[in-house]
Write a structure and sequence with these properties.
Order of helices and strands: EHHEHEHEHEHEHHEH
Structural class: alpha/beta
Strand order of the largest sheet: 4-6-5-7
Oligomer: single chain
Number of helices: 9
Low-confidence stretches: 203-208
Strand content: 15-25%
Mean pLDDT: 88
């Protein structure tokens, strides 16, 4: 799995620690790609057993994803946000589903953590979760996986904002799956201003 990270020293160990033993055992690859970090994200990641760190001087998530692909050797692959909490069991369940070959892209069940957020934020996420077309979307779960044929659909990650949205638009509904797992945990924005700042990522930057 590939974890792009930009100045995530404060949270990345929390994300990596539950995956460490699976990486040590060789069940998964766990590659953190630090891109343009000015903090000690790389050192924190290296302190977790089983983690391989790649460092890029330039801050670019698409470049980090592509560098992670170059470093990785196994398929299928999961792409994980550096601040997302997920269990090794959930990761393996997604990889197992992709390994069957009946779908090309998949992500785990997910839930939103709105603790401490203003009232509008959890209301928005509750409403969004009820929209049918969002249920199979590859964006919004903090993680998504691809098998080799799925990745071949587009080759390299383009230089755009919103890799998860881009990936989602590459596949028809029957080619995607949400795997019933222990959910990944996505921390929501804390207030309406922060929420509005990320909405263009999902609704205004679609790339065909």
């Amino acid at each position: 799995m590939i974890v792009p990270a930009y100045n995530q020293a404060a949270v990345i160990k929390r994300s990596l620690a539950p995956l460490s033993q699976a990486a040590v055992d060789g069940c998964i690859e766990l590659i953190v790609v630090c891109n343009g970090c000015t903090d000690n994200t790389g050192d924190v990641a290296r302190s977790v057993p089983g983690v391989r760190v790649v460092e890029l001087a330039r801050g670019s998530k698409p470049a980090a994803l592509n560098a992670g692909d170059e470093a990785a050797t196994l398929w299928p692959r999961l792409y994980l946000g550096a601040d997302i909490q997920i269990s090794a069991g959930a990761v393996l369940a997604v990889l197992d589903r992709l390994g069957k070959g009946d779908v090309l892209a998949a992500h785990p069940d997910s839930r939103y953590d709105s603790g401490g957020a203003s009232a509008l934020v959890p209301s928005y996420y509750r409403a969004r979760s009820r929209i049918p077309q969002h249920k199979l979307a590859m964006w919004g779960a903090g993680a998504y996986g691809l098998n080799a044929p799925g990745h071949h659909r587009f080759g390299a990650f383009p230089t755009i904002t919103g890799d998860d949205l881009y990936v989602d638009t590459r596949f028809d509904a029957y080619e995607k799956a949400v795997v019933a797992t222990e959910p990944s945990v996505v921390k929501t924005p804390s207030d309406a201003t922060s929420l509005l700042a990320i909405l263009p990522h999902y609704y205004c930057s679609r790339s065909s």
